[in-house]
Amino acid sequence: MLPVKPNCGYNVCCCAVWLAGFRVAGFRHWGGAGSVGLWARFKNTTLYKSIYRNEYPDTPRNQVLVILNSVVLHLHPVKVPRRAVRMSYTWGLGGLSLLMFLMLTVTGVWLMFYYVPSVPGAYESMKALETDVIFGPFARNLHRWAAHGMVIAVWLHMTRVFYTGSYKPPREFNWVIGVALFLITVLLSFTGYLLPWDQLAYWAIQVGSNMAKVTPVIGTYVQRALLDGYDIGPATLVRWYTLHVILLPLACIALMAVHFWRIRKDGGISTPIPYDEDEVEGAVEAGLAADDL
């Protein structure tokens, strides 16, 4: 029996619900004893199921299939240790580092609209950003403090990985990737230091380049590579600007993709060996439910 078309006039939502009734799998009748029955039948329509997620899978096999068939959920492992999802002092440091990087990306793109990477224009553009651009001081300060926060978060994250033995097999390759990410994070912070082109930036880079110069054997070559010469000048500013906004961010994004992929393949983050022998790996939802209890 086909559904009776309601007298809805030009009510688009009502007509859409009526049209969806034709596509219900196993549809028999539309009538119902109230809005509850109508809503229950609407949830069984193809229209509703195409927009909202279906019922929660009730078997381990179906739960695994939901994760593997979703692009977003596939980023997470199917099962993780219950200890990995418990709140602790070091919980979420990797995610916090990623959040800081995203904040740096957004604020950095905003600053690029007003920054002039030249000796005459660098300092003047920073002064104009502070006085003439709406939310300019806020964007610059947020960029600066997010950079400091990212360095601290990455360092604390690596400290947690080291003291919990998470660098051991099979995660030794991901530990190397993490060390490379920490070095790139420090270089991102260091290269951004020169861009305001003020006295603090100039002499900080002068001290840093002189420290690199005393490196045995390759010290002079390292200094010339950093400064594009023997002294800080216009070429140095352009080189550091290119490193700061193009090369180092691209390298960081590529290594982060590999880092997250290896975490996914290694079964999630590593935690210390539990003292309880009956503590085994379980689904993420099970661990969260245990924490709630």
Automatic annotation (TrEMBL):
Keyword Transmembrane attached: yes
Annotated ranges, domain Cytochrome b/b6 N-terminal region profile: 56-272
Keyword Lyase carried by entry: no
GO biological process entries: respiratory electron transport chain
Name recorded for this polypeptide: Cytochrome B6
Top-level taxon in the UniProt lineage: Bacteria
Transmembrane regions listed in the UniProt entry: 89-116, 145-163, 175-195, 240-261
Molecular function GO terms recorded: electron transfer activity; oxidoreductase activity
InterPro entries the UniProt entry points to: Cyt_b/b6_N, Cytb/b6-like_sf, Di-haem_cyt_TM
Key words of the record: Membrane, Transmembrane, Transmembrane helix
Cellular component terms per the entry's GO annotation: membrane
